[in-house]
């Protein structure tokens, strides 16, 4: 490089030129490589043809005049600086409220203020969903069709695979200025909604198939009489929940943009606040309806065929946005794999929920899984927006070149992503304590009356979120290096892992609490038996 050293600067050292806005960068990264018109094509001539004509005199004449003007300007600046040294510039103020490219300045205080309320609201929504789940598990359809319980985590997890991914995409588009134009806003929103309807319909059917296969493997039998009910219930639940939550996400992102709030901080928690409750309620009522009309052999097949027939219409709507069409063609693997991962969590739930030692697990499962998924979705969306603003797909900033960063750099540095990770980790224990206390007030007889359980429950929540936040940093870097959009590829995996980790760790908490309680009871019995007659 002829002795020239190239250094990649951090965002705070840079001022992006207006002609190369991040919105254009992200648009270019999604639509493919930047196209250059013929009028801008530069044909390189051999270096000897022009440069050889320059002499030392011509170079000196061309350089000296600009150099003299620059020197005079710098001298004038020095005189002014010396004059104003130690004085206050009256009448002059400079306050950055918003950068030209749509990014709002954030501090720890603003991040906390914007995240705490949505997280608490989402926790209350998931708490309500847990109470609903504790009720519907005793309904005849859930008692008769056990595989419906296996279906709960993957269907509830669709909010992470679809709605949270949608919220993250829209938040990135809003922060990079892509939806400021009304016409472009309509195109982006309609194509994104059409995309999640296609994904919800297909993944809903696949979730039912996965639940049936896992049930058949665990019980070594397959009940074909319940296949139609399970498939129809899953498809309708996924479709209706995706439509309702998708519209809600659109309203939240646009509203947050207008009120000057970062959508990354609030969109995904609010999606989760109603996502679990809406999905569980729809699943309960739809499956009960089909269970009551199970004698009608044509009802469930017609429902499945009807919703599948709508897929071509959604594809036509999605075609108006090439990046969305790319997701529709190549974005299936993350959401399907995430659904499979969540299904294993559902299998754990199916095997434990009806046992006495796991009483109350139905209430805590949506909370521990949902809180972990919410926090990691926020962090993933924030890192994705950060990379869209300061880099291009396939090129990691110099300070993020390491694919497997030191955990200390993820949680303990002054970088904005490290600060947000600490804020999110700090919210875990207070949030769960609030939700635990509310559950104790509402359903106290279902809550294990043990301080040891509370300690293990909080420890499990911290372990879950810590692992997820670190994996978010790693996965975003890897996907960005592969020129993939983290909004579409990381959140499904992470929320699926959150469901599996949450369900597994919660099961372990109940098991340890039961073992310790049984040992204490045995010790009490032995002491009573060995006492004086």
Automatic annotation (TrEMBL):
Residues in SLC41A/MgtE integral membrane domain copies: 152-285, 365-508
Membrane topology: Multi-pass membrane protein
Spans traversing the lipid bilayer: 59-84, 108-133, 194-217, 229-256, 268-291, 298-318, 330-349, 361-380, 419-440, 452-471, 491-516
Keyword DNA-binding recorded: no
GO BP of this protein: magnesium ion transport
Transmembrane in keyword set: yes
One GO cellular component term noted in the UniProt record for this chain: membrane
Similarity annotation: Belongs to the SLC41A transporter family.
Role this protein plays: Acts as a magnesium transporter.
Protein's UniProt name: Solute carrier family 41 member
Species for this entry: Canis lupus familiaris (Dog)
